[in-house]
Automatic annotation (TrEMBL):
It comes from Piscinibacter terrae. Required for maturation of 30S ribosomal subunits. The gene is rimP. This is Ribosome maturation factor RimP. Residues 7-79 form the Ribosome maturation factor RimP N-terminal domain. PANTHER family: RIBOSOME MATURATION FACTOR RIMP. The keyword Cytoplasm applies. NCBIfam families: PRK00092.2-1. CDD domains: YlxS_C.
Length: 183
């Protein structure tokens, strides 16, 4: 059995999704894991998850004869790559950045919302994007994709400033300044 199959078998056996494996110069082996969809234990990968997978992979790769100098196990990050059809199905409705292998109408890069194609027997995907004038849709198959990643969406509006409660009698008067601003 080859080392990639051993890694995939180990990661999925521990209840995680194998996102990607990278082998780079000087023996660095990077393994990116994610939680399975609808995992009841949480939404994000934790340090404990990475440690658990690292320990198991060290043993498996030693038995399988996988050569590496350094092993890194981590989450795929907020800009997670989409590699398999299951990834596209899982993240339908999310913002993605898509790079095609061949240009379409002079462009290879698109940023928009991922959708499954409608219709009976449809197996492709669609990205809905705005070209500056109107919304456009581009249908594509996974064979046409060079790279696709989630676009991190960070909501800073969810954490609104909460004023501290004011003690009775300490309320500012109408003409009084509070924090350098007039009330």
């Amino acid at each position: 059995m080859n080392w990639q199959a051993a890694i995939e078998r180990t990661v999925t056996g521990l209840g995680y999704d194998l996102v990607d494996v990278e082998r780079s110069a000087r023996g660095l082996l990077r393994v990116f894991i994610d939680r399975l969809p609808n995992d009841p234990t949480g939404e994000f990968i934790t340090v404990d998850d990475c440690e658990k997978v690292t320990r198991q992979l060290q043993h498996v790769l030693e038995v399988e004869g996988g050569s590496y100098e350094r092993l890194e196990v981590s989450s795929p990050g907020l800009d997670r790559p989409l590699k398999k059809a299951a990834d596209y199905a899982r993240f339908a409705g999310e913002q993605i950045e898509l790079t095609l292998k061949m240009p379409f109408q002079g462009r290879k890069k698109y940023s928009g919302v991922l959708q499954a194609q409608d219709g009976e027997g449809a197996t492709g995907w669609r990205i809905v994007f705005n070209d500056g004038k109107t919304d456009q849709a581009l249908d594509f198959s996974l064979e046409e994709v060079r790279e696709a990643r989630l676009v991190p969406v960070i909501d800073f509006k969810g954490r609104r400033f909460q004023a501290a409660p004011v003690a009775p009698g300490d309320e500012p008067q109408a003409d009084e300044e509070v924090g350098g601003q007039e009330q």
